[in-house]
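Lab notes, practical 5.
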Amino acid sequence: MSENKLNRIKELIEILNKAGRAYYQEASEIMSNYEYDALYDELLALEQETGVVLGNSPTINVGYEVLSELPKEPHERAMLSLNKTKSREELGEWMGEQEAIISWKLDGLTIVLTYRNGELQKAVTRGNGEVGEVITNNARVFKNIPLKISYQGELILRGEAVIRYSDFEKINNQIEDVEAKYKNPRNLCSGSVRQLNNEITANRNVNFFAFSLVRAEGVEFQNSRKNQFEWLREQGFEVVEYKMVTKDTLEEAIEYFSEKIKSNDFPSDGLVVLYDDIAYGQRLGATSKFPRDSIAFKWADEIKETTLLEIEWSPSRTGLINPVAIFEPVELEGTSVSRASVHNISILKSLELGYGDTIEVYKANMIIPQIAKNLTRSGVCPIPTACPVCGGNTAIRKMNDVEALYCENPECLAKKIKAFTLFVSRDALNIEGLSEATLEKFIAKGFIKEFADIFKLAQFEETIVEMEGFGRKSFDNLMASIERSRETTLPRLIYSLGILNIGVSNAKMICKEYGYEIEHIIHASREELSQIAGIGGVIADSIASYFDNQDNLDKLSHLLEELTLEKIEINEEEQILKGKVFVITGSLEQFENRNALKELIEEKGGKVTGSVTSKTNYLINNDTTSMSSKNKKAKELGVAIISEEDFMQMM
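Output from the prediction step:
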């Protein structure tokens, strides 16, 4: 064996282990999946050729040590990874004359569930294959895990925890600093499942799909994995979608899944094929790393050559500035693609990207555009020393061996994305079509610098229509929504400004106190404001400080030029609920939703709060006799519990 080959083996092990640590432990990426697979295959071929397999090689290690504070527990049986192939011919040869189950290889976090006496007793992550983390409390709040089942014996099963793409997009905008932590649904799922506070997990819409039954004492499955799947379904589990195949029907099944993945809402990085004959599979045993009764089929990526035109630098609210590759459009998996995230400076440097380079691009999991390799490697593109949004200094920071570019200016407009998100939210100006992600794009391109600029987006029509994720219909819908929002109310406007400590209710109270005259609010003193019932010194100081700032006043003036404020006349005789405090709970029958009821109460002078206290006058709950926590609290404090019907009679 040549020394060069041994050195290459050591080099590949170091590179792959570093990438593995970044992906599994630090929820970050330093290379694409395509590049990782290529290096892994190169290492495996060298090991087979030389007969040398080093102890730290990723080809024999099945995972990485867990690092969180969750309790650890060894698995009863080691959880091995799957051998893989991208060849349909090899897959057919592997199947032979056996019937098999073919199913999604979901891209999430593998979980082992244990049930005893019909109840969920334990949930443990895969961890490093030998030892996992106990996440039982978190599993109890997964969206679809049954906490009780009819079967009373000991049941152990495995499945994948995943987050849908659609939920990922929604949740992405709600998680602080998510861009710095999570790049895809798998990483978000991993972080969600391993939370120490399961309230966070509950809000992330984690789904569980069973894919393997380990043990169910006393149940006869007639030697069939399919029967196990169907039995799990009868117990209330969602089972990963599957089809029964033979060597002759394998091709048809693969085509079915390859078409469906284009619109599939769950992340998947391939398929799993498992022998239906349980005894046959068990007789085959396992290698030190792979079971022999199942195999993974990885999608053969459609790869196209194209030319790199430029690197677009996209700032975010965390200060992180992401490099995005812009290239000549190519057709991939049925759609035109012209841009792909490069993720960070480390990947940019490793690819040695330069303008005009010939690059190969593909869609990871047939969905997410990625750069596979750079064929010409002319050199690293210039890294900006100034933020493209604010012009402030940038700096490269290194965390966990990953380099990323950040804007150093604390006043950078891109960092104030939350303010713009609040401004367009439903309770504020209510502008549909301006998600947080869209706002970030518009800010990065310089379209929006202050609130008033949102009403001038029509001047960028040509560019916006051509932007990814937009089009003529989306642009027209956005313009229509912006036009509708021009007519608004003063409480909505005050709330939309994002003044510290000012919520919807406070904004309404202040506007009502000053007769819905904005000039009166602007010139109100701290002392005057603090005298308003329910305001107090802290909120009064927030309002006065905001309007003491000339820059804020200038921007408000620009904004008022774009708006028409509805004139609200106060009829004191109609303030029949003045001084009354309400709490609303349960489902409603006569009002569209709680907000509609809340608006009526506030219109009549009342106030709505979220929890029952000694200051509460009425709890509105159609189920007046229920034993809910709010009903119990109301009874303890002597607060009247009334139904909608009672409330309407009161009115």
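Observations recorded by the TA: The chain has a mean pLDDT of 85. DSSP finds 25 helices and 24 strands in the chain.
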